[in-house]
Amino acid sequence: MRKVLLSAAVLIAMVLPAGVLAQDGLEEARILLEKDHDLDAFQKAIDLCTAAADSQPDSFEANWMAARAYRLYADEVKQRQLSGWEGICRDYGKKGMGYGEKAIALAPEKVEGYFWYGTCVGSYSDGVSILTALKEGLKDKTQTSLEKAYSIDKMYNEAGPILAVGRFWSVLPWPLKDKKKALTFIEEYHSHYPDKPEGLVYLGEAYLDVKEKDKAKAVLEKAAASDETYYSDWAKRLLADM
To answer: Measuring CA to CA, which residue among 207, 13, 210, 211 is closest to residue 221?
Structure first.
């Protein structure tokens, strides 16, 4: 009789319970998600997190991490302006929203589900347009999620909820847009992270919205000098239009 040789991975899967394998996958995904601007790492994290969430649908950690992985991948593709980035933002944003919603339902007292759900809506909106997202009724749920994240732990993910709420009020079309509220939150973020190019660009736009051109110029010039190409180029475009 011919012997069948099994791979180490198959043998481990036969011996260890699914929960152990899922947790190992999440630990690996956690490391991958800390890599900056690494699409391959983000995609592998997506695969690991979604596999864990599928095998353990009641895992809060697996679901919010899956939402985070989808958001990071979509945002990186957008920043690189890769071919088909809008479709990726649409699809990955939508999938991330689904995992974020599951995380919220599993642990409504924790920040992660609300924050990553809200930011995945941002990616989805990048893909389909803000107007389309509004027509689909996403405004109130996104606002509630981001404000809830802010109230639970506004310093989570390097003050991500502060910046996200500010940006939310900044990008809405008239008459939903609230320029003063946007500026208040983005200035709060800036007080914690005064050198972050993303925050500087958003602050510059917020100052321009309220006709504070001198303040806008100062922060945009700082952003334009950064080594983060996506935001430095954005700042340069805004400066050129002033």
So the answer is: 207
